[in-house]
Amino acid sequence: MASFHQVESNLDEIAAPSPIYDPSEQPVRREEEERARLLPPTLCTLGYLVFFSIAGTLLRVAVESLTFYPGTPLNTSVVWANVGGSVVMGFLSEDKKLFMDNTGPAGKKSIPLYIGLTTGFCGSFTSFSTFIRDAFLALSNDLSVPVVQVPSAPNGGFSFMALLAVLFTEIGLSLAGLMLGAHLALAVQRWTPRLPRWIYTVLDPLVVILAVLAWVAVICLAVLLGESGQNSTLWSSTTWRGPVLYALALSPPGCLARFFLSMELNGRLASFPLGTFAANSGGTAILGMAYALQHSTAGGSGIIPCQVLQGVMDGFCGCLTTVSTWVLELSGLRRRHAYFYGGASVLIGLCLLIVEIGSLKWSIGLATPACFDPVKTEY
């Protein structure tokens, strides 16, 4: 059985080449590169993953809310979160000074803070499952538009064009964000400081405590404040409180599951990262089931069940799936491998949602979830 320090190098945030890299120089990504020997995942690493998964989810939900408004040029909810996470991932992957220490260029790959920022924060800030959900909703002509009612597409050809628009926009902008982050790292490299060792000495034990406290706090808040309230205020369950608290509580399990899947599976095939593929496909399948239950007449009929299902989609599935790691892998694969891996990821995810959500929509129809129905949420 492989030791932890052998399998941890399978994390593509760690083992993948920098985004500013010509994949045609090698037949397969990383085949001629020496994989870094890394330390076992310590309690500090897990603490960073828990803490940054909560932070990434909170920021993703906030960005989705801020960028979804009447007249928005892009009405896919998660696009700017995916772009932002990809920019940060590109910067961290290309940076050669911020996390440097006396161990040389490979030093940052064994630093828990670096793993927490890339796998934890960037992976949780971005969401592959939400991106595929938006692609399916575009295909089914159900993509939300924050304006007055608009007529339905006259035929399926318009929905197909909407699907292509979502795919090209999300993937293209995320890849562009990855390159932008890498170019920013190169541009400011002269002025980028090196984090001193004492920061790790202070932060590593502190983040374990903060991670536990933050996770316990959001669980308690979700249990105690899930539905109470009589008026439609900021703290009422008709706004952000209930769904977001459940999402934050369910974020760490999704992030940790993706972390261990990547460690175990990503090294099996150099040309096809199985761990990220399994996490993205599995998370999309779970999101499809939760979405179908939430929009059925029985599964999401109550306020609390509806909020919990929304938390599963935004929290667990959002952190189990990732776009930032996915586009980093695409940039490091040879062209034909990248097209095959990227196409398979999108096609499998879309087919899963067509079966899970499409079978409900095109049979009995999708009902309005109770937690988003203004009539049912009045107290």
TrEMBL record:
The chain crosses the membrane at residues 38-62, 74-92, 113-132, 160-186, 198-224, 244-261, 338-360. Pfam families: CRCB (PF02537). One of its GO terms (cellular component) is plasma membrane. InterPro entries: FluC. Keywords: Cell membrane, Membrane, Transmembrane, Transmembrane helix. It catalyses: fluoride(in) = fluoride(out). Its main location: membrane. It is a multi-pass membrane protein. It comes from the Eukaryota. PANTHER family: FLUORIDE EXPORT PROTEIN 1-RELATED. Fluoride channel required for the rapid expulsion of cytoplasmic fluoride. Belongs to the fluoride channel Fluc/FEX (TC 1.A.43) family. This is Fluoride ion transporter CrcB. It comes from Penicilliopsis zonata CBS 506.65.
